[in-house]
């Protein structure tokens, strides 16, 4: 039975990428833009209004875990743990690796890290809520991979000449 809960936790984790994409495109760049707008503007604040979205995802996760464990509904708890796991991944990728709001890692040369940074840079080139692109976090569209691969090829050709 434990494998079922692990599967549900991991399935929830992967489904959260789609939920995040939809939330980012239609909620953050939609009716809750006033909370997300400061994330697209240069500033020197430690916190942003955008950080309120942490609670929007953390509260359902916490409730699923707490109530699931209290009432022995382990499927609900597994869903809550999957959301929390995605939240941790989001924090590490978005806050630590991409924006470096916490300076734990230096710039990585790993291809995936360079691709997600490029995709996020393309997202942030739009300072308003219209005409956005690249709304996900872990999954990156093919065009961003191709751009980084072209850059690598150009760099390799320059080194060989």
Describe the overall structure.
There is one protein chain. With about 160 residues, this protein is mainly alpha-helical. It has one domain. It is globular. The mean pLDDT is about 90.
Secondary structure layout plus pairing:
Blueprint: H1 2-31, H2 33-36, H3 53-70, H4 74-98, H5 111-124, H6 142-160
Helix pairs in contact: 1-4, 3-4, 5-6
Mean of residue pLDDT values: 92
Strand content: under 5%
Count, helices: 6
Helix content, binned percent: 55-70%
Uncertain segments:
none
Total DSSP E strands: 0
Biggest sheet layout: none
Provide the gyration radius in Å. Answer: 18 Å
Task: Give a brief description.
The protein has 161 residues and is mainly α. The protein is built from 6 helices and no strands.
Question: Which features does this protein show?
Answer:
single chain, 161 residues, mainly alpha, 6 helices
């Amino acid at each position: 039975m434990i494998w079922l809960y692990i599967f549900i936790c991991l399935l929830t984790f992967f489904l959260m990428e789609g939920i995040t994409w939809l939330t980012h495109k239609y909620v953050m760049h939609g009716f809750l833009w006033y909370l997300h707008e400061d994330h697209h503007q240069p500033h020197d604040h430690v916190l942003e209004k955008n950080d309120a979205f942490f609670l929007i995802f953390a509260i359902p996760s916490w409730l699923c875990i707490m109530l699931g464990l209290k009432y022995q509904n382990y499927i609900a708890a597994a869903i809550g743990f999957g959301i929390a796991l995605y939240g941790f991944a989001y924090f590490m990728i978005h806050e630590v690796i991409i924006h470096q709001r916490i300076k734990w890692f230096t710039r990585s040369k790993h291809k995936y890290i360079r691709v997600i940074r490029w995709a996020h840079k393309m997202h942030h080139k739009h300072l308003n809520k219209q005409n956005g692109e690249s709304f996900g976090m872990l999954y990156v569209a093919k065009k961003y991979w191709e751009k980084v691969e072209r850059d690598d090829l150009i760099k390799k050709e320059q080194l060989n000449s």
